[in-house]
Design brief:
This protein has four helices and 20 strands. By secondary structure, the chain is mostly beta strands. It is globular.
Length: 421
Amino acid sequence: MQLYLLYLQIIPTFVPIKSNPIINKTSTAVMKKKTILFASCLFGVFAFSSCEKNLYDESKQPEKEIQVKDLDIPAGFQWKLTQVAAGTVAATTPTMVSFFLDEACSKEEKIADIPVDTEISSLPLSIPTYVNTLYAQYKTSTNETKKVAIPVNADRSFSLNIANDAKSKSNTTPSITRGHDIEDDIQLAKGVIFHPKDGWGTIMFEDQFPSLGDYDFNDFVAWYKYQLQDFFHKGGTWYTYVMQIGFQIRALGGINDFSPYINLAGVKYDDIDEIIFQETGDGIEFIKGPNGEAILSYTNPSKPAGSKYLNTEPEYITTSGVNTSIYIYFKEPVELSRLQDKMVDIYLAKPDHGTEIHLKGYKGIYPSSQNAKYSNEDNYVWGLKAPAALNHMIEENDFIKGYPKFKDWIEGKGHKQWWVS
């Protein structure tokens, strides 16, 4: 679904009142009376004009429509919507625990299914910045479902100790077999971590770097998700052998020649044992960066016939795009901390390693962009990453028109979940 907004502007019309006074020239007395009356009326007109001026005082007229480029962004604002929460989880008997972002523990808000052992271990989870409480759910020995609220501290730490009534799981966990559907793999491995949750996140860019552009954030829009599976802990640290990435291009509203890339900043190309492209479009491959980076490279999708853009004009809407599902297997187990949301750098770049556009906090990959800064002197950026599946703007609409609470988030007035109406 796309986001379409229609604004109607009503301009009031004012009709002047005409006056045709008749003056009797044959009577001096009447003339004097008329003169006095005229003077009185004239005074009244001046008085009314004074009131009228107040009624139409410019300061009392509707304010100018605020746009993103009118915002005063604090210098220290980081533009981040997710961060790593480090938790300790322990149980008196090995069991399975699921973590959620909402109290109802709904499927679409699930962030992990974790096999918990009796050993205390530190579990890193990427969670949205608006979350102050996590919710755990597990089965009891009588097969009942139990829910536990877990406060997330100011330093983003949390702790969970499973009660003695937890249902014991088998000590043997089958390994994932390659090439299976993701849901089948979850059942086999009995454990998975979702980023940003069991659903999609959104990445969106302006492509006029280093100029700001029109700030509708629809020059490039994609939904993304990735999952960590077949993981285990050793010595209090969690590891995994496999990562799954999902990526779906939703819109292209720019006219510049940019393509999307994903740099796995926590690992190197030579760390990868095998890559299985389970579902892809054309022109997708893994490449080795100049410093050994593991980079997923895309080719832009075609646009509908007759359209300059993809999915940003109401008359040219299509569901087509590049849909990608990839399994990445590592030669050696990789710490989960190296595969968190902040370690996945989704960016745009021109052909032949030309101009790159990254989110704030990331660095350019190739020499031509390694010294570039992705926030300007007023702390404006060229990219947003949100832990939810967002609709995007139609062409020539400012972002605040579609997401009014975005302004409050930027200005530090709350609404960290600004996409929720």
